[in-house]
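We were asked to recover a plausible sequence for a given structure. The inputs and outputs are reproduced exactly as logged, with field labels preserved.

PROBLEM: sequence recovery
POSITIONS: 263
GIVEN STRUCTURE:
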């Protein structure tokens, strides 16, 4: 099975890590679309264009059986469009884990950290209203502008980024939020730092493992052929712009190499 995965940068590797352990038999192709990063500040029209080009490339060059949009921002902006354009393809998206957070909270207060593009989307609003509204859970949302870029570029979080995180998390702490949704695939990379800065007992919800499970279910119930050819490399990484290999290695716990790609 061949699976294409993409994100604006390194964040989607937090999902790749889970797919590698859930589906070791799959061959993965990953695009970090750093030439167009961050997606979080782009319009839905722009994100649709990037997502279309990437999917076209995966199909034409690697004949993928499934696509994983390992990015909340691209999912909210483009997944319906991709499904309409590529009806034959198994497509799995990424959504902020509000459902598991609502199930986990004891204080009845849930925080959501995400990009502006995700929080602005109709798809997110419907999900939040439907899931939290039913149980009278209060949601504290925070758009973390610039955080994905900081995670791409800063080996250790800079003072400025730490200060921003303090500012973003303070209202959640005051409100006694006990569960925070990491609604951007970049954020699990700094889960420990978020916990440290929050400085109070908190459950962080990420969705990589659930996405990998969903992909497995869909692949094994679809008509995708499972006869594979012999291969010597299970993960192929591409970047459309600058990328930090070191940060990628920290996420995957393995040595990696990115091939440059222009789309
Ligand atoms: N990793 C992405 C997400 O899940 C996008 C970050 C960005 O490029 O703004 O939303």
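RECOVERED SEQUENCE:
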């Amino acid at each position: 099975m061949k699976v294409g995965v993409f994100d604006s940068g390194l964040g989607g590797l937090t999902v790749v890590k889970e797919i590698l352990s859930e589906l070791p038999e799959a061959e993965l192709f990953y695009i970090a679309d750093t030439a167009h990063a961050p997606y979080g500040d782009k319009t839905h029209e722009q994100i649709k264009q990037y997502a279309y080009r990437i999917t076209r490339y995966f199909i034409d060059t690697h004949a993928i059986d499934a696509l994983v949009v390992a990015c909340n921002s691209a999912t909210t902006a483009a997944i319906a469009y991709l499904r309409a354009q590529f009806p034959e393809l198994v497509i799995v998206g990424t959504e902020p884990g509000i459902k598991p957070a609502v199930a986990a909270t004891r204080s009845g207060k849930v925080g959501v950290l995400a990009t502006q593009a995700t929080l602005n989307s109709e798809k997110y609003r419907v999900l939040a209203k439907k899931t939290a509204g039913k149980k009278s859970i209060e949601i504290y949302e925070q758009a973390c502008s610039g955080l994905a870029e900081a995670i791409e570029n800063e080996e250790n979080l800079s003072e400025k980024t730490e200060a921003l995180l303090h500012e973003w998390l303070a209202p959640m702490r005051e409100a006694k939020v006990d569960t925070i949704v990491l609604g951007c695939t970049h954020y699990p990379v700094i889960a420990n730092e978020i916990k440290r800065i929050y400085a109070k007992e908190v459950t962080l919800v990420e969705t990589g493992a659930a996405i990998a499970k969903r992909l497995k279910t869909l692949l094994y119930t679809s008509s995708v052929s499972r006869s594979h050819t012999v291969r010597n490399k299970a993960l192929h990484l591409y970047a459309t712009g600058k990328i930090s290999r070191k940060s990628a290695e920290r996420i995957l716990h393995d040595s990696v190499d990115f091939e440059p790609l222009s789309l």
